[in-house]
Amino acid sequence: MNVISIEAQNLISGFYSVTKIPATQNTKNSFFTTSSFVQCHGWVPFKTHNCFASLSLKSIKQKIEPKTSVEKSGDTVSDKEGIKTTKKKKLAVFVSGGGSNFKAIHETCVAGSVHGEVVVLVTNKRGCGGAEYARNMGIPVILFPRAKDELDGLSSSDLVAALRRFEVHYILLAGYLKLLPVELIRAYPKSIVNIHPSLLPAFGGKGYYGMKVHKAVIASGARYSGATIHFVDEKYDTGKILAQRIVPVLPNDSAEDLAARVLQEEHKLYVEVTAALCEERIVWREDGVPLIQSKQNPTV
């Protein structure tokens, strides 16, 4: 009999721990199967009423926030020498595919180049590459939205509650193909960003994603494309633009050629924007346009 570890069980009702249980084989009342937990950290089912006891809020905080020798004050901490620094921002990343942007962000967070921490991954496809990478890295994975044939997917209200439990500061969409629910957008105002593989507002909106974008760019005869990071509103790709990176469209480009060139810039741009978010360097102009302050010269 195999033994598997499940992290962050039922956070909505106050459960956050690592518990070892015997693996079962496709029982009807189970919220998971052995195939869902190939790695040590698997899916995070948030409604297990019959298997686990609930822990206190104090024990949840002990699991999420390890004890340190610093004094906390708001979003800053002071070390023993009294030097104040901003606490790491907690990030939730949403993916539907391979998650290469997610990987780039996570790697730079781990390396310390970005003052943040990916605390949870949300996906609508349990077997996608991004979810597999998260499980390998010990990052809890949430399934959203709830599908008719999925027992462990969350509703919109449950998702918001779960992200609150993880104390998420920012939500990063990295190839997530579902429209976000209004409840989530309103719960995280000016805190959700998305990356799109074109220079918005061109080649954006419903139906424009992945290779479809690059094929449309080439067919249009456009000489330039690129990547856009924008804040998320209640429609596809219409939120305020935060950052862009230009990529030339070469005369003999295929959609695959252009996609590869754009993706390289996406990785760089998303890491830079994530760093700015975590360092609180986003300011809003009077007309509602977001700007990124220079790290070297905050007045710029």
Order of helices and strands: EEHEEEEHEHEHEHEHEEHEE
Beta-strand content: 15-25%
**Which second-level CATH architecture of the domain at 89-292 applies?**
3-Layer(aba) Sandwich
Task: Extract low-pLDDT stretches.
Answer: 1-42, 45-73
- So, the CATH homologous superfamily of the domain at 89-292? Formyl transferase, N-terminal domain
**How many β-strand stretches?**
14
Shape: globular
Tally of helical segments: 7
Q: How far do the termini sit from each other? A: 61 Å
Radius of gyration: 20 Å
Sheet with most strands: 7 strands, mixed
Q: Summarize the amount of helix as a percent range.
A: 25-40%
Tell me the structural class.
alpha/beta
Strand order of the largest sheet: 8-7-6-9-10-11-12
List the topology elements.
Layout: E1 3-7, E2 18-22, H1 57-64, E3 71-73, E4 76-78, E5 84-86, E6 89-95, H2 100-111, E7 116-123, H3 129-136, E8 141-143, H4 156-165, E9 170-173, H5 182-187, E10 192-196, H6 211-220, E11 224-231, E12 241-248, H7 255-278, E13 282-284, E14 290-292
Parallel strand pairs: 6-7, 6-9, 7-8, 9-10
Antiparallel strand pairs: 1-2, 3-4, 4-5, 10-11, 11-12, 13-14
